[in-house]
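Technical appendix A lists one of the benchmark inputs used to test multi-chain prediction within the project. The record comprises two sequence entries:
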Amino acid sequence: MDVKKKKVLNSYHVVFLVQNIMIGMGLLSLNHTLSAVGYGQWWFPLLFGVVANITLIPMIWISLQYQDDDLFDIHEKLLGKWIGKLINTLLIVYAVIIFAAVIQKYLDLIQVSVLSDRTIMGHLIIFLLLAIFIIKGGIKSLARFCILTFFVTGWMVYYLKWGIADGEITHLLPLFNFNKLEFFDAFKNGYTAMVGYELIMVYFPYIIKPYKAFKHATIGIWNTIFFYISVTFVGTMYFSEWQLEHLLFPVLKLFQAVDLSFIEQIDTFALTIWVFLMLTTVGGYLWMAKKGMDSVRNKNSQFHIYVAAVLVFIVINLPFPMFLAKLYETIFLISFGVILWPILLIAIHSVRKMKKGVVR
Amino acid sequence: MRILPTLLVSTLCIFLSGCSQQNENPSVENLGMISVMAFDYIDQDKMKMSVIMPQPASEAKKHTQLYTVETDLIQAGLVDVSSKSDKTASLRQLRVILFSEEFAKTGKMVELVLELYRDTNVRSNIYLGVVKDSAEEFLIAEYPDKPNTSTYINSVFQPKQYTYFSPFITLHDFIYDETNPVLTAIVPYLSLKDNLIHIEGIAVFKNGNMSHVFSSQKGKNIQVLRGQKRLSILAITLNQDASKSEKVVLEFIKSKVKVTSNHNFESPKVMISLKYKGKLSEYKGEKNLENKKELATLEKQVNKLVEEEIRELIEKCQELSIEPMGLFESFRMHYKGDWTPEQTTELMAKAVFEIEVDTTIATTGILK
């Protein structure tokens, strides 16, 4: 496929890439992560959408200044070769750990609910191979897989119908029944579900129409918000506050309410289909790790995909479960830093521009 | 020449899988799919767990297999059942769980239901029921005119028009009611009469313990106040004491309830407006139904009676300090802070209720 060619991403590719890298494990536990604010959680995705949209502006702006460079190149140009490479290395580590965190969480869930008598090792290897297979085709392959994923999984929103029928619309009020601390807690935990759109800085140089990228990424973000708000809305109606707080994966319980005459256990079905969403999410980060290695080693090589995958495998199999749990928790907080990072880059860019007149 | 190694590897993968150990995962034939579970109380630590699974083999004389074990934990009980039966017991096809009245009254039911809610093999749309006397009896009893026990018990719990007074509470509903501070949980109450299962009414819970059983007529009103739109038949007798008693049966009733409140916590007032619509399917009395005026009088009489019934129900609930109807949701909707069950009880005790019933009889049949 178009591995060698530079500009490969059409407008719809951007929309689906943004949207499907974001949707992943976060959606399964969204009601739970937002439970600090109780029933008030249903409108939170709207807030997230606005915040994501605002934080998207600096990302696109800095990328537009360096249209042919991805985030890693920008680092080297702005911060110098060595500091740039150091930060790029950190970003590789970041991508690998996010990959590991997401996949570990998903495989644990699969083990608990679907394949309770097997260890995760077998699935892990198959999963990694699939992710490698997708990324070997380049970013366009991932984008195409995102489109496929959307059509394979998007229709599951229909299954929320049963939750609406059994739910109480009165739960939507009161809207602001929380204090500052609860709000902050819910925002911090819930916003992890939004992480993923910052990758646009990595695949930006591949976009055919960079000046329209903001618009397309915005559409992607708001598509995600549509799915998120459907789930929080129905979850608020269907569950009591206690359930929101204590159920780790409320979406699965929502799917258990589905009552069809020809098929049972929709939740198992949904959970296995969810693998598509997981693959798109981790695919994005695998691509990021690969590009990072390319830039650090100054060499474009498909081999880096394997290296990244092996690193993920090693991280997951590290014999320090407590450390890993803490690491997975912290990595999403670091991702907030990555989302805000372009603001700093813009500052450096402006300072250098003022000093030199021209940057390049 | 890449195709050769690929072929080789895939062939090996397919054939080598035959060498894997067989006892890893039981196949469908070796699974005993439990369809109904029943729990009886023995003492604080022990319970009697009875399960039935359908017997698919046509050679067997009975189509239901019954196992009873004494256990303290569900999973430990399942291991016991598996060792007794020739199959591995699985909860994946569980449909109905029955609890004995004694079990529900000792507060262990909530604990057990929570345990099942945690289990990912158990669906949350399983129906729950509390039964009079022994729950095991329901599974032991012979139902000669039914295909098999599990199908029968399962179909009793499927909502049907004539049993709409029963709430048909699922695992999720029960947990929802139990953890919702505005509500107290309800569960259908069943008994065994002449080898048939009979839905007698509604068992209401208080602080996790079963506290009272309402009749099916009261159960109907609870359902209406909870917002149930379709109702079973409404059969009422007007002027019960007088010699000229009238009997009215309204069918295919649609109900609409609207609960509003004054949001005043000091002197709470709840306005309940009920709208019934139905067709008159049976009438015993002296009114001429052709006459619009007399029909209107009949409607008014029905209104009054329903209002009295609901008032009686609410008074009973106040007396028992339970709130199975969720009437104070509109208070919670405008309340800032965490709502507690105590607030509901407090409001229930001092609230004033204004009840307004409006019945419309759409048709009176084709006889004059």
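DSSP finds eleven helices and 14 strands in chain B. Chain B touches chain A through 22 residues (CB under 8 Å). Comparable benchmark entries are summarised in Table A2.
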